[in-house]
Amino acid sequence: MRLNTVLFSAPFNKSARAPQREPVPFQMLLPLKLKKTVSGKGDNLKEAACMQEISVMFACFKKHDFDQQECMKEITAFQGCYRDYSQKLATQREQGKKGILVPGEKKLTHRQLNQLLKAFPPKK
Predict the structure, then answer these.
(1) With CB atoms 3.0 to 4.6 Å apart as the test, which of 38, 71, 82, 95 could cross-link to 113 if both were Cys?
(2) pLDDT 10s digits, 23-55
(3) Do 118 and 38 touch, CB atoms closer than 8 A?
(4) 58-70 in b/e burial notation, b at 16+ Cβ within 10 A?
(5) Which regions form coiled coils (predicted)?
């Protein structure tokens, strides 16, 4: 059996692939505290709406050779879903611009988060 000298020349504790034997000490670079405000840079998230309805509508179009008269039920379902989505989005935007907090809302705008941070400031 032929052994490679390169594998055995480096000590095992300095190898990059070897697991660390002792815990890595924590180095605090910045103080661990919340800021008083949140910026609005990350609020531009685009989400897809009514994907189920549009896929059913396109399947019906393909099945009936793109005849709209055969797929009126699917078209009205898609239009109703999009109308509900746009109304919901408009009310969320309106409440977000005013900073109105809605109980149970999962996605908050930066203005709503800033209002919460004003109501409950971080402790020093």
Answers:
(1) 38
(2) 888 899 988 887 888 888 766 667 788 999 999
(3) no
(4) eebbeeeeeeeee
(5) none
CA distance 120 to 124: 12
Phi, psi of 61 (to 5 degrees): -60, -45
- Long-range CB contacts (within 8 A, 24+) of 111-114: 111/40, 113/38, 114/37, 114/38
User: Looking at the predicted structure, is the pLDDT value of residue 96 above 90?
Assistant: no
Q: 46, 35 in Cβ contact below 8 A?
A: no
Tokens of 120: 């409950």
Q: Which residue has the tokens 């400031």?
A: 121
d(CA 117, CA 124): 14
Amino acid at residue number 108: L
Q: How many residues are there in the chain? A: 124
Structure tokens at 24: 């890595």
